[in-house]
């Protein structure tokens, strides 16, 4: 799968932009703050319905505008498709596929993108929510129906938390909590599905992640990943990473954990058990990456997670290869890591790179250069014209 044409209207610093892309490597070159990353961000939005830089949609809309439009013409073999999303500053967003209105949540079915950016260091060094977000985005790309499960879980969680807060304020205990039992069952059903899907995905990520790490770092530091699960006694959000409960049926463990923590939940007015409290635990050399890994190791772990994601999407997607985006990555890498990364991504159908300085990008990836300045596409330079 490749993007042949990308068009923007009132997106970030672009009043309007229209750029043609090609199969293979494409490079956006521009000084910091000129808008090259905004192009990558727009492509990523089609696949994830979110930005890798901000949590909300409002910053994506150009100042003074009410909405932004991202439009992309995709090609998969002989099949061509036009995707469009309207990002509204207020109210619900709108989307079209082939000119027909669809729910925005359907767009990730048609666009698979793996984007790596400096912000991805938060996957390694940030709080547990960063790692949950990474896994959940990949999960919904591979299994689109999981977007609905995750959304329903969040809705039930909010309603259950509201009930806990109300019970705490009114001093309700015992028989007065029958309504909470109903929400517990809804939470367990949805939460167990999320936990099991995350665990299965993590198992599938392990081997390609280890391979990618060795290829990038040039060393085998035995990278590992697994889950610290609140239903098994861990609570990373409260600083307790090690669970002590034996393995068993996820729903039963979840149900038992809720019962055991109910008193504490009523005291705090907060749901203390469930996938919203879990953490993806990363190790290299037998030590937790967070707090122990060097800067180079942290970069290699974060990058290997993205490359492993691309490999999984490539293996089971009817759309072909995902589009691989490397946003301001090469400036952070030494010469050897640059060359290794270029070799790893060179086999994908389409690779999009952003860089402030062209020499930072290995020559093998400089086949199609797009120069960007102040929200304007200055020109495109195929390799044979440079």
Automatic annotation (TrEMBL):
Record bears the keyword Cell cycle: no
Family matches, as Gene3D superfamilies: P-loop containing nucleotide triphosphate hydrolases, RecF/RecN/SMC, N-terminal domain
Chain ranges of the RecF/RecN/SMC N-terminal domain: 3-364
Keywords, ordered alphabetically: ATP-binding, Cytoplasm, DNA damage, DNA repair, DNA replication, DNA-binding, Nucleotide-binding, SOS response
Binding-site positions, ATP: 30-37
Compartments where found: Cytoplasm
InterPro entries per UniProt: DNA-binding_RecF, DNA-binding_RecF_CS, P-loop_NTPase, RecF/RecN/SMC_N, RecF_2
Family designation: Belongs to the RecF family.
General function of this protein: The RecF protein is involved in DNA metabolism; it is required for DNA replication and normal SOS inducibility. RecF binds preferentially to single-stranded, linear DNA. It also seems to bind ATP.
PANTHER family associated with the record: DNA REPLICATION AND REPAIR PROTEIN RECF
HAMAP family xrefs: RecF
Protein name: DNA replication and repair protein RecF
Higher taxonomy: Bacteria, Bacillati, Actinomycetota, Actinomycetes, Micrococcales
């Amino acid at each position: 799968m490749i993007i042949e044409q990308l068009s923007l209207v009132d997106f970030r610093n672009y009043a309007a932009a229209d750029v043609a892309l090609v199969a293979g490597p494409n490079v956006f070159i521009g000084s910091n703050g000129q808008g090259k990353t905004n192009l990558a961000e727009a492509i990523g939005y089609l696949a994830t319905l979110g930005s890798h830089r901000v949590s909300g949609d409002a910053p994506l809309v150009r100042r003074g505008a009410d909405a932004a439009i991202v439009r992309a013409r995709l090609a998969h073999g002989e099949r061509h498709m036009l995707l469009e999303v309207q990002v509204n500053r207020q109210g619900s967003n709108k989307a079209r596929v082939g000119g027909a209105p669809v729910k925005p949540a359907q767009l990730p079915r048609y666009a698979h993108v793996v984007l790596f950016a400096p912000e991805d260091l938060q996957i390694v060094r940030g709080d547990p929510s960063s790692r949950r977000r990474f896994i959940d985005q990949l999960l919904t790309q591979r299994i689109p129906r999981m977007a609905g499960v995750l959304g329903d879980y969040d809705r039930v969680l909010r309603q259950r938390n509201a009930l806990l807060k109300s019970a705490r304020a009114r001093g309700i205990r015992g028989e007065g909590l029958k309504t909470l039992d109903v929400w517990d069952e809804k939470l367990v059903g949805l939460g167990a599905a999320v936990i099991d899907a995350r665990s299965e995905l993590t198992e599938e990520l392990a081997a390609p992640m280890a391979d990618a790490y060795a290829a990038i770092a040039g060393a085998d530091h035995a990278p590992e990943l697994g889950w610290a699960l609140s239903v098994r006694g861990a609570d990373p959000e409260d600083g307790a990473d090690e669970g002590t409960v034996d393995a068993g049926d996820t729903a039963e463990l979840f149900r038992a954990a809720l019962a055991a923590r109910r008193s504490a939940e009523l005291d705090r007015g907060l749901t203390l058990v469930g996938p919203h409290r879990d953490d993806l635990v990363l190790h290299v050399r037998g030590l937790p990456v967070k707090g122990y890994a060097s800067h180079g190791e942290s970069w290699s772990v974060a990058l290997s997670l993205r490359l492993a994601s691309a490999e999984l999407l490539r293996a089971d997607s009817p759309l072909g290869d995902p589009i691989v985006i490397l946003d301001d990555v090469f400036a952070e890498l030494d010469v050897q890591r640059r060359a290794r990364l270029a070799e790893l991504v060179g086999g994908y159908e389409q690779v999009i790179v952003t860089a402030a300085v062209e020499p930072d990008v290995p020559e093998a990836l400089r086949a199609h250069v797009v120069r960007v300045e102040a929200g304007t596409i200055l020109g495109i330079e195929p390799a044979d014209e440079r």
